[in-house]
Amino acid sequence: MEKIEAKMVFSRDEEFQASFQPNYDRYSELKAFDDTKAGVKGLADTGNIEVPRIFVHPPETVHKSSCSTEKVFIFPVLDLQGIDHPSKHKEIVDKVRDASETWGFFQVINHGIPLPVLEEMLQGARQFFEQDIEIKKQHYTRDTTKKVAHVSNFDLYSPFVPAASWRDSLYCLMAPNLPSPEEFPTACRDILMEFSKHMMNLGCSLLELLSEGLGLNPCHLKNMNCAEGLSIAQHYYPACPQPELTIGTRQHSDCVFITVLLQDDIGGLQVRHQKQWIDVPPTPGALVVNIGDLLQLISNDKYISVEHRVLSNKVGPRISVPRFFSTGAFPSPRIYGPIKELLSECNPPKYRATTVKDYTDYFRKKGFDGTSALLHYKILS
Ligand code: OGA
Ligand code: NI
Fold this sequence. Notes:
alpha+beta, 14 strands, single chain, binds nickel (II) ion, eight-stranded mixed beta sheet, Jelly Rolls
């Protein structure tokens, strides 16, 4: 089924084929790569100095910057120190609102998660990806119902995605139902559980700030169960011999309420802001927060879910650990539409209501194809 679909659309995508790549049996090459279950790391370890063609993107996907007359922007940083002091609290809420409305992204410092926990989490992720391949392979799966799944390119076979990305991932669904400890890979089990607890607390504090920023009761978003579902991804971006040909993560927005991301010091994460790609500078101890599609939807476009990407790099590996606040494909009956308290005659609902599962299924089917899944839910006026 996947084979037919992929072939059908790739032959439709003639412009891409003609301008960029010769015709070849792309599906077989994707499948051969997938069957190794060794991911991009397996390829990088062979020492081959050429990126296989299934990873080669059109130049416009990979280019480093968007125009020659670039403005200099300072990526927003939010210091959570003193959050319980009323005057400081208001200042923090104002900054969260401002960043969420204009960037959809900010970094937080003094968030209360001890540095050793962050370092150990990055280390645990590295141990998972760098362990004995035979053990790592046991977790390799494309079954999206699995709570723990190691996979390279969740959208590898998507007919809408022109090329694979230079990245491997491990996804763990931590809530609403925490897997039993034995289901987690031993390489990162303990730290994953500890990191998850800390992240849950931070996520709830962020949802309070974001609620207040919308002029709502601090518990509003939490009471809507925006923190009900949590998954942690661990991404491993091996050093890439030809970073000018491929990308670490293709541009996309996140199909969640919010994402809180821990990254190491390699860099490469970029955010789309005022038609430019802006680097998110790796900052020791900081966490990157971004608004996801579902929060844009329920805030009726007050907060924005912004596209971002990760460049590949000759230096590596780069490791990142995003924490997604969403129940994902887990069935949950709750319907989410624009929050009533935010609507008025001059601000009518801009989106149809949906379940998180419905939204996630649509998003995953599409893959990182360069368009926003929100468009599918937009009410056309
Ligand atoms: C993601 C993502 C960025 C990174 O997983 O959605 O954008 O730095 N990751 O790995
Ligand atoms: Ni993302």
